[in-house]
Each structure stands twice: as C-alpha cells, then as structure tokens.
Amino acid sequence: MAPLVFRTVEATIVAAAIFSNCRRVIFTKTILLQYKRYDRRMRRLVLFLFCAALVSTGCGKKRALVPVPPPAARSRTPPVPAPPIGSTERGVASWYGKPYDGRAAADGEIYDMEQLVAAHRTLPFQTMVRVHNLVNDKTVDVRIIDRGPFVANRIIDLSHAAARAIDLIGPGFGPVELTILGTPEGAPPAQFAVQVGAFRDRANADRMQQNMIAAYGSAKVVLRQGDPPLWRVLAGHEATPEVAETLAQRVRQEQNMPQAFVVRLDP
Fold first, then answer.
1. Structural domain boundaries, residue 222
2. Does 241 map to a domain?
3. 3 state SS for 141-155
C-alpha cells in the first residue's frame, strides 16, 4: 500500500502542477520525467484528479475584464489672437521690387510693386499697417500680402510705391515704427516656425530640412517665387511666437545660425 499511496501523492502533485491554473501552466523537467513513468492505472488516476480540479477550482470560468479608461483629452493651445488695433513695433524697413514684381505673393495675390502693399514675417495677411519713417516723420498705410523680409534685423519689406511715399527708395532701408490699423476677420489659427535659411538650390534646402528634422523634429521647405526662386527652410511647428522664439534661440546657439528668425506658417 505504501508504494501506491506514495505514487498517488506524486500523481496529485503532478495534477496540481499541471491543472491548478489552466491559463498559466509551467512544466518542469522533473515532473514530466516522473509523469512518463506512470502506468496506465496511474494515468487514469491523474485524469480523475484533473476532472476534480476543474470542478473545484472553476478553471473554466472566464476572467473578468478590467475596463480600460479612455485616454485623457489632449489640451490644446488656444489660437493666437490677431494683434490688437494700435499695437506698435519698431525696427528697420526695406523695400523690394523686381524680380518679384508680377509674381505671386505668399497669399496668392500677384505682387504689384506700384501698389501700397508690404511683406511681414508674422502678421496675418490683409492686416493694415501704418509705417512711420522715424527719420523724416512721413507715413504710409500698407496692406500685408507677403512674407519677409528674409534678412535679419528687419521687420517689414515695403513695395516700391510705399517706399517712395516715405522717401525710402534712396537709402534702401531705414528705421520705422509700425502701427496696426486693422486685422482681417476669420483668419486661420496662427502657427509659427523658425526660418533657418533660403537657398537657390533645392538640393541644399532639402539637406538643411533633413538636418533640422533630425535636430528639432519637424521642418518644411517653402518656395519663394522670384528670379531665381528661393527655397526657404522652416524648422519647427509652434503655437505661439514666444515658443517659436525659444526655438530660434536654440537654433542660433546650437547650429551657429545667427540669422535664424521667427516666421508665420501659412496654410
């Protein structure tokens, strides 16, 4: 009887090891070797113990599913409002004419250098701006239709007609104060980037774009029509000009690009 009891105990251990958890069964090498030595009668006993384990432990029951909470809603940065009427900006103005005259401006309008229009880096298209020449006290009102100037330390590029109105043709550039007179209704939400370069060769622009993507996560190439055309490389995609300026500071320091500046991303 002792051997039979001993083998019965062993069979119970095997059954418990195999069937105590139907979803997670761990077979040890020792138990498998032991189990293979059992005769037909002992294997029937193991089968009986297995059936009893099913009934007593409820192994066939499904586990209750724990509901997964929905992902938290991502907070959205509110769109940047248009600059308030009367707000001002001081800096250096320049002007541009040919070879851009007669070509599409950034807003799609054909640029006519004899109209009172201008280019600005971040103001919404169709913003009305008064330009005050701080040297001779002359003023002119212009409408923003284009992006620029693409030279560091300048804030607005005037058309030939606007530059003539404030006597800026001869010197080519000069100190001015801009005052917002009106902003368009229904302007799309603003997004901003950092212009890191403008290239005549598209291949050079593409290489710079890849470098900026590797360093800062995103970048795009934008065509500036002209003769020759220029391929602008814009790094980043920021919701506010302040965040974009922080990125611009990083680019200037990390990439040794003192000419990098913030621009508005247009659709």
1. 191-265
2. yes
3. EEEEEECCCCCCCCC
